[in-house]
Amino acid sequence: HASIFSCARSNIKKVSLELGGKSPLIIFADCDIDRAVKQTCNAVFFNKGENCIAAGRIFVANSIHDKFLRKLVAETKKYVIGDPLDRSTAHGPQNHKAHLDKLVEYVKKSVEGGAKLVLGGERLPRPGLFFPPTILAEVEDNNFAAIEESFGPIMCVSRFDD
């Protein structure tokens, strides 16, 4: 980053850097759980997670974690997966096979590193490049999913002591 700064400064250039992200979403114990679940799903799964401001990590207070996770799974299962031109569809296909393959590998590495696959995680057995909304839980700070951005519909849930 220092070399980019040096080049920009020496040429008096304005720059805007895309540095990737793992934007946190923190769910406290005193939240309205049903509302928080819906907002969390929107924050992660909007536009199939292909969104530079998607919530990259979900931190949930330990005292409500299990209940929150159950509700997340139930809400996520409601997503209609299909043709993006159909107004009833909430989740369409990935744009490229290479990206779909990257998402499958992302989940695999995360699970190998200790994350728990709660929902989704594999290409759907149907025509098209469909990868379902996916939930990983027990994502520790050193896990692949905690460090790397998926740029896809993968929710990474961690707990914190409250």
UniProtKB/TrEMBL annotation:
For molecular function, the Gene Ontology terms on record are: oxidoreductase activity, acting on the aldehyde or oxo group of donors, NAD or NADP as acceptor
Domain Aldehyde dehydrogenase span(s) in chain numbering: 4-162
Please list which residues make up the signal peptide.
Answer: none
The answer, when asked if Signal is one of the entry's keywords, is no
Active-site residues, Swiss-Prot/TrEMBL: 18
Identify the InterPro entries for this entry: Ald_DH/histidinol_DH, Ald_DH_C, Ald_DH_CS_CYS, Ald_DH_CS_GLU, Ald_DH_N, Aldehyde_DH_dom
Keywords carried by this UniProt record: Oxidoreductase
Tagged with keyword Amino-acid biosynthesis: no
Gene3D superfamilies, per this entry?
Answer: Aldehyde Dehydrogenase, Chain A, domain 1, Aldehyde Dehydrogenase, Chain A, domain 2
Q: Identify one Pfam family in the record.
A: Aldedh
Sequence similarity: Belongs to the aldehyde dehydrogenase family.
The name this protein goes by in its record = Aldehyde dehydrogenase family protein
- What species was this sequence derived from? Necator americanus (Human hookworm)
